[in-house]
Amino acid sequence: MNDAMRRDCEKWPGTQGGLSQEIFGVEDRLRHKLIGFRGNRLWLDDAMSIMQMTGGRETIHEMARQLGGIYVHVGDIAPEYDNTDICEELEKVTMALGDLAREARASINDDGKIDADEEGRILARHHQLCTQAMTYVHRMVAIYGDSTVSVHREVGNARATSR
Per the confidence metrics, is the pTM higher than 0.85? Predict the structure, then answer.
C-alpha cells in the first residue's frame, strides 16, 4: 500500500516536502509517515488528501485490488450534457462489452487457456467496460435525477489532520 501512496506523491509537481507542507503544514511529516518514522503512519484521511492534491489514484486502485474489486473514476459532468450524449454513452458501454467479449474469445480460442498477458488484456477491457458503465449511470442520474437523488462530487483541497 505504501508503494501506491508513494506513486501518488510522485505525481505532485513540486517536492515531497512541498506536498507535506501543503497537507500537514510541515515539510517532513509526509516523509515520516511514508517510512513509519517513530510510529508515524498514513491514515485514510491522509491518503485522501494526497490523492486530492496530486490527482493520483494509485492508492485507491491498490485498496480496491486488495479487497478484490476495482476503482472506477467517473469524471465531472459537463453542464451541456443532454439525452443525445447519454445515448452515445450507452453506445460506448455496448462497444466496451463487445471488446471484452472479443478479447476473451480470442484468448480462449488461441490455446484453450488464458495466460498472464491475455489476463492483463482481458482485465484492461473489463476495467474499460466498468468505467464506461459507471460513466453512463453517473451522467444519466446527474441529468435526469430528481431532487431525491444526488451525485456526490467533492471539490477542493482537503487537509489531513495531524496525528
Answer: no
